[in-house]
Predict the 3D structure of the following.
Amino acid sequence: MHTSHLGRRAVLAGAAAAAALTTVPFLPGRVQAAESAATGYRWRNAVMGGTGFITGVLFHPSVRGLAYARTDIGGAYRWDDRTDRWIPLTDHLGWDDWNLLGVEAMAVDPAHPNRVYLALGTYTQPWAGNGAVLRSEDRGATWKRTDLTVQFGGNEDGRGCGERLLVDPRNCDTLWLGTRHDGLLKSTDRGATWKAVSFPARPSATGQGITLVVAAGRSVYAGWGDSDGTADHPNLYRTSDGRTWEPVPGQPTGTAAKVPVRAAYDRLTRELYVTYANAPGPNGQSDGSVHKLRTANGKWTEVTPVKPGGATSDGGTDSFGYGGVAVDARRPGTLVVSTNNRWAEIDTVFRSTDGGRTWMSLKDTAVLDVSETPYLNWGKDKPKFGWWIQAVGLDPFDSEHVVYGTGATLYGTRDLKRWAPQIRGLEEASVVALLSPPTGEAHLISGSRDIGVLYHERLTASPSRGMATNPVFGSAIALAQAAAKPSYVVRTGSGDQGNGAWSNDGGKTWEPFASQPAVAKDAPGPIVTNADGSVLLWSLAHWDGTVYPAHRSADNGATWAEVTSLPKGAVLVADPVDPARFYAYDTTAGTLYASTDSGLTFTARATGLSSGDAGFQLAAAPGRPGDLWLSAKANGLYRSTDGGASFTKVGSCRASHTLGFGKAAKGASYPAIYMAGGIEDFNAIYRSDDEAKTWLRINDDQHRWGWTGAAITGDPRVHGRVYLATNGRGVQYGEPV
């Protein structure tokens, strides 16, 4: 599950709109001259091994070993069969295009193996911007882009539904694109321009619209997600001539067939298989079914493997919907379908070899090997088969090569029994916190919305300890380390057994706080610790933005007391040298507060600073008392060398979104500064070795990763190495080469 950096999910009921005809070439490495990157850095993922929702998998029907995957906030990937790795295809999208990292749909051209198309757009709210279509003639190595006047919901409900983008089976220059609020679009020039076409159904406020577009022979079928499941409101349409659409006669009705989720066509038997649910998913499904249509005579047959609603082993109700479906291109009547949102009995993939008359649950005989990605044990003895299974793929050249996506990984098998993550190279975590300890085994500890906290003994392998346990956090919020006692680390997040924990071995093992403020369960918020680890300050905030009074503990979390002199929601940082000093920035008033009594009381110091911007970050330079840096997003960067009594704007910086420190350059006395922000008129990643007098851009035009404003830190032991949190591409780390 993903919580974006915006943390908002509204539904926009948009009126029908024609797509824009603006075509923009988008070739990695060919951008405005002002954005030419500084050379000399190599960027890689700190390996986690997935940690995000795989919303679609697409094998190319005519090329062995060629496949594509899409994600809800982390872009698209191409499978490289020679190296057994996924290759990211959309890392070139920059800050201004952050909304395009959510992939609504993808399509390949069966007759032209090098062509691939992506429909991009993460949210449909007004603040999110419009969607775009990328098209490539070289398997995603370079792209051309068409901006649209419609929006997509790559991280909204229905994001796991079937591909809404299709190359027409009659003419490869023609493409179809289903939208959530604006009906059906059509292109007759391979995606360069688009226009709205007549479609029988009318959008509603649910935000689903067309859920799938699929070819069956020479006809095209489209699923409709805004139906109520009755015969008077069809949810499956087709066209045989590419001009007129009609409801498919005899289609199933009822709650279990309310939303057509995905569809796949068996060309050997001329049957179209459709999975249904009573909601688009991935959440909220409690009923569903599977049906097939014999296209030659229009006969429908229900082939549901197991009907939802039965009793669970603990006496509850086995509620779920159906999600993915894929057919075997080599064996007629052989297919796989997945359940979705089946929490009690755990989701599974069913396989049939007789057109759906009988089924076998592949989960029942599965042997899961997660040794390469131990976090998938979720702090328990063994992993589960999966959840949020809406993406299912079946290799057209290997009948026993099946893959399915989950909310955390992509599992694959070559013998229908042994399963392992097929995820190398695909990193999709939304990362919110980073630490690079000055000593110890790990150079990196990370916290993400998707996998809690990870202790990275190596940057090139998924952490052997898996996710931090005792307690397990499904979603991390903050990490903090005692500057003078780096063995002491604390973390906060969303967990069932507590929302805060401490470690005395640098983050290898953890203990929950003995107690926590009552509001912390629903509003955990960020935490800091002073230089010697003797005091904790916990700034409590709910996911919806509601803030609460900060709390203080001087006994390692055994007891907590409200700090009444500290404004609610203030951004906290500890002095890295003096254990008695804390600093807090009131973003509402634009005031810097300081404490000289270990956080018992705070008094105002500098006033009249930038305010009203929730993106403020406050950082303290390591080893230097009272040396503070305030990142004020579009308002720039400010520095105080007197403990917050006064601040001076850093003239070399136009915008600062997040800032961190690393080992000083050879011959330099001040730590290297790393920043995600703007020196010129665009946002990039920079390093300064001279206290922000000058900056060197260290990322390039092919490595931009959308929004990167959550966290950045240098390595205190390796000059030049920097760790960057992304909202959907995990932790990126760069090193000089």
Notes: Residues 429-562 form a domain with the Methylamine Dehydrogenase; Chain H fold (CATH 2.130.10.10). Residues 1-38 have pLDDT under 50 and may be disordered. The chain is about 0% helix and 35% strand. The longest strand covers residues 485-494.
